[in-house]
Specification:
Elements (H helix, E strand, L loop, with lengths): L5 E5 L2 E5 L31 E5 L7 E3 L7 E2 L5 E3 L3 E4 L4 E6 L4 E6 L13 E5 L7 E14 L6 E7 L2 E7 L5 E9 L17 E10 L1 E6 L2 E6 L3 E8 L3 E2 L4 E3 L16 H15 L4 H14 L3 H17 L3 H8 L5 H16 L4 H11 L5 H12 L7 H10 L5 H14 L14 H14 L14
Parallel strand pairs: 11-12
Antiparallel strand pairs: 1-2, 3-6, 3-8, 4-5, 4-7, 7-10, 8-9, 9-11, 10-11, 11-14, 12-13, 13-16, 14-15, 15-18, 16-17, 18-19, 18-20
């Protein structure tokens, strides 16, 4: 089959992307026990108390060193510099500096709850006498609030590739920060990347209350809550914007008072169930229990919410072994779909994670090198919609030996096919049924063609 070169832009650099047809009809690998693939830290510094947890047990997790199990913090527990603090997807967790000057709310998300693109929220606090709060935002969304009785609060914000000085001018002033790192669609997996082949990163800053100054690269911008110049943007491709943007009202993703979506009730109940279980178990075990409960749950909405929260949570604590098991679980379609979403988030959340996952699939889960490469290409969504080879590849993968590959191929194909072009397909169906459905898709999109939909009859 002819491999076509497609030019894409990654951090302003043109690249040639070729979708790969590899790893088809090969043997199924084995799985092993759950393994954390590591947690990130910024630099090395003394570990000292710098704040207090303001959230009941189960809401805020802590990891002192990579490789150690995650632990739940209790309300009023000390928070230490250098530790990685985490709010699982869909949860909120509050903490404050000690002595009280700034409050930090880790405001995580789940698909369907808000328009924010991230999942979990993770930060590392730093010991600094020059600022009221010094922290690294590793992922997700946080709300920073001045809790002083009077005067300004100064915050040093670090993200991958940049640092910002935030000045919250009066007590109660607050700013919402949304940090999201991702692989753009069409960027192929590269087993030997150079320095430019890294995820794209975006930081949005929204003044929620009062006035906040944002200083980056020697230039200061003053933001005011709506209606006013409330929004400021930075990304790893273009850097900081030249100025702020006026907003008449807060965007929904930055508004804590926004009305929850219709699916929020089931999600809230899943989170409540997790917190009840997490009181007596470490976080990973509690998430395992939740995933098992999802399989037995008869209510469709509750089963979906339990499975999604559990799988997204397991990825957040780096239990990628268990997430890959979910991706290949024939009994739990909701878990498989959640695994596709969260693995895409996971590989985009830090440099080199896609290479680490590729090697993990080979070393720990028994994948062949071509199979592992296929999984990463599908997770990268490295298949341009305007190339006929894309559809030939994805339809062929619908008959792959590995359920994980079939699920990823179906996710790509169903998102690329135009509305109105549809043929049912179940990645966990029987071999005969999968062959039948793949043939139906082949009839809809013959080799060398692009998908089209027939006009409706009048």
């Amino acid at each position: 089959m002819n491999e076509r070169c497609v030019r894409v832009r990654v951090h302003g650099v043109g690249r040639c992307v070729r979708p790969l047809l590899v790893g088809m009809f090969l043997a199924v690998g084995t799985t092993t026990h759950a393994e954390e693939l590591g947690s990130r830290r910024v630099g090395w510094e003394p570990r000292v108390p710098v704040g207090k947890c303001l959230t009941p047990s189960g809401g805020l997790l802590v990891n002192e060193r990579p490789g150690q199990p995650w632990q739940s913090l209790d309300e009023k527990d000390d928070l230490h510099s250098r530790d990685l603090l985490l709010a699982l997807p869909g949860m909120k967790a509050k903490l404050a500096t000690h002595p009280l000057a700034v409050e930090l709310t880790l405001w995580s998300n789940l698909p369907g709850l808000t328009e924010f693109s991230g999942l979990q929220s993770a930060v590392v606090l730093h010991d600094s006498r020059a600022f009221d709060l010094d922290f690294t935002l590793h992922s997700g969304r946080v709300l920073v609030t001045n809790r002083k009785e009077k005067g300004t609060a100064r915050v040093w914000l670090r993200v991958e590739g940049e640092a910002f000085l935030l000045t919250l001018f009066e007590p109660g002033a607050a700013i919402c920060l949304g940090w999201y790192s991702f692989w753009p669609r069409g960027v192929s997996y590269n087993p030997t990347p150079n320095a430019d082949h890294v995820p794209a990163r975006t930081l949005a800053l929204v003044a929620v209350k009062g006035q906040v100054a944002v200083k980056v690269g020697g230039t200061q911008h003053t933001l005011s809550a709506p209606p006013g110049p409330a929004y400021f943007h930075w990304d790893s491709v273009n850097g900081a914007e030249q100025g702020s943007r006026t907003r008449r009202e807060l965007p929904a993703w930055a508004n804590l008072d926004a009305k929850p979506s219709a699916s929020a009730k089931a999600v809230r109940e899943a989170i409540d169930k997790y917190q009840a279980v997490a009181k007596d178990r470490e976080p990973r075990t509690a998430l395992y229990d939740l995933l098992a409960a999802a399989e037995k749950e008869r209510d469709r909405d509750h089963a979906k919410a339990l499975a999604e929260f559990a799988v997204f949570g397991l990825a957040a604590i780096n239990d990628i072994d268990r997430v890959m098991q979910a991706l290949g679980d024939a009994k739990q379609a909701d878990a498989r779909r959640a695994a596709v979403v969260t693995l895409r988030h996971w590989i985009g959340d830090a440099d080199g994670r896609d290479q680490r996952l590729h090697q993990f699939l080979i070393d720990r889960l028994g994948y062949t090198k071509p199979q592992a490469t296929t999984v990463l290409q599908l997770l990268h969504s490295a298949f341009p919609a305007d190339d006929p080879d894309t559809y030939e590849i994805l339809i062929a993968y619908l008959r792959h030996d590995k359920l994980a590959v079939r699920q990823l191929a179906w996710s790509n194909l169903s998102s690329l096919a135009p509305e109105g072009l549809s043929s049912p397909y179940d990645p966990a169906g029987s071999e005969a049924e999968r062959a039948k459905r793949a043939a139906a898709w082949k009839a809809l999109i013959p080799s060398g063609t692009l998908p089209t939909t027939k006009p409706k009859k009048k």
